[in-house]
From TrEMBL:
GO CC entries: plasma membrane
Organism: Streptomyces melanosporofaciens
Molecular-function annotations in GO: phosphorelay sensor kinase activity; protein dimerization activity
Region (Disordered): 615-635
Pfam families, per database record: HATPase_c, HisKA_3, PAS_4, PAS_9, Response_reg
Domain named PAC: residues: 344-394
Location of this chain's protein in the cell: Cell membrane
Residues modified as 4-aspartylphosphate: 58
InterPro entries documented for this protein: CheY-like_superfamily (IPR011006), HATPase_C_sf (IPR036890), HATPase_dom (IPR003594), NreC/VraR/RcsB-like_REC (IPR058245), PAC (IPR001610), PAS (IPR000014), PAS-assoc_C (IPR000700), PAS-like_dom_sf (IPR035965)
Residue runs in coiled coils: none
CDD domains per the UniProt record, alphabetical: HATPase_UhpB-NarQ-NarX-like, PAS, REC_NarL-like
Protein name according to UniProt: PAS domain S-box-containing protein
Residue span(s) of domain Response regulatory: 7-123
UniProt keyword annotations, A-Z: Cell membrane, Kinase, Membrane, Phosphoprotein, Transferase, Transmembrane, Transmembrane helix, Two-component regulatory system
Amino acid sequence: MGDNRIDVVVADDDPAVREALADLIDSHPDLELVGLAINHEQAVRAAVDHHPRVVIMDVHMPRGDAPSSVRAIRDQVPDARVVALSAHGERETVLNMLAVGASGYLVKGTPAEEILEAIIRAARDQFSMSAELLADCAEPLRRAERASWRFEDLVGNRLEDSFLELLGHAPCGVLIVGPRGRIEYANAHTRHMFGYSSAELRDKRLRDLVPERYRTASEQLIGRVFTAPSVMSGRRRDGTEFPAQFSGGHLQGRQPRGVVFISDLSQLRAAESRFRQLIESSPDAMLIVDTSGRIQAANNRTEALFGYDRDHLIGRAVEALLPDQPLTVSLREWDDSLEEPVGHSMELVGRRSDAKQFPADVSISPLRTEEGLLTVLTIRDITEVQRAQFVLERSLELLEVTDRDRQALLSHLVHAQEAERGRIAADIHDDTIQVITAASLRLQQLRRRLRDPDEQRVMDKLDETLKLSLSRLRQLIFDLRPSSLEHGCLAGALRGLLEQIRAETGITYRLEDRLTAHPPAETMALIYRTAQEALVNVRKHAHAKTVHVQLLGLDDGCLVRIVDDGDGYNPLEVESRPGHLGLSLIQERAQIAGGWCRIESEPGSGTTVEFWVPLGAPPGASLDPADSPEGDPQP
């Protein structure tokens, strides 16, 4: 054991209890967890391997029995001390554990502070036992005719050391009162509770430890076989009083004596006070209701919410506040159930003292007490919540209408753009290309009339320039309105664009079309223009060797993925510069269409552009070549 810390092994077959004990030990600065075990065999092995100072061990575990495990640990690790822990406290089991050398016996449910204290006490070779076990183990002293013990062998000068130690470390106060009513023994807890030393308490009477108003009641505790717990006040050496619970019994022997158990209720009263403060400080109305549906307590917020004085509410049926409601909570079923009851909530209607009603959220929680099962009702006025919910629903409806309007606007915008592109393409085809074609024909006629070779060469160059102009105009017509797109072939339009890029830059491509649905004309045009913007960026900036384009059907929409092996870039640096709006336009187009866009890139690793748009037909007129006033131009 280094740095004076107490090494501890925890043995328990229940995972939740085992982990809770481990966390409890880890939280204490003077304790160190060195081993865990889930059965008796592992408990002994862990003790032998780690040589702990204390083993805290569940009594009922598989693969062995507790007394044998304690003997094995004490034989093989003499310095180890065992503190027994059990969900049960049968007297025979307790005595068997004490007989084989256990340094303490606690029942599960003992407060964490007492468990930690028991471990520390065991490390000091001191004994610990839960109060209820102490009282039960002392029962044979009250029935000497059925036991082999004699009181005279245990009390006074003939008290055995083990019994004195048992009483000395009890977590409650214990007094042994002689036949003359004088105190013969007081354990350490009693001395601390009342502020007296052992010598000062000896020969005092029990009535000297309570205020005068309780003296008669205190004397009635002595001389009876057993008395039920009675709440009185104890009086300390300095004259101050504290709430306490007294119970007594009769120890038979040649000279019958009495035993008195005393519990300080100050902490319990403090906990009750904190509970009341918690209820009073709650922002919600809180009621405590018994199994017959009668109100037992109400906080200030209940008075404000319902308009009743709390004194008027006590004893009334809860239906006075929640009338004609499906309050289908069967408290009797809760009371009869072997399982721990679980609370729930429901929306009901509350009624104030002026008969006005309001929507209420009611949380229903069971509360087990010594008097039986009670129910805590937490009631909140949700008028504003429902009003806000109504406003939210209306807002959502407005957003849906706005979204439909946005889709209609997008449809008309795409339709107008494509119609304008078609008109420009038609103008180029019907006017500019025709004029340049006529000029080329006249130029060829003029060339045939020339005889001078130099003049013919000039005409040849001029003819090549006109042909290049025609080629570029035809490409412009394709860019404005691809013929494949007009005929409903998105993949064909993209293939034509990729072929153009390959011819101009040498970038090879792979087009993968796995789109089975047929997009509406407006959506197809938007997908093509968005992909065109991304591919233009590849052609101008990427310095790529290959580009991979995929058309995929995903979630009732079209996913387009464009991946190049170019230089890549830092999106945060590039997209903020003037003149680099292409990628931002891609994102905006996808978002306007009700979709999304994702761009990934880094220097030296190429770029991936993904965008998704829904394929549902947007409202508005569909894009059809017949709708264009300029007809269907053919380059």
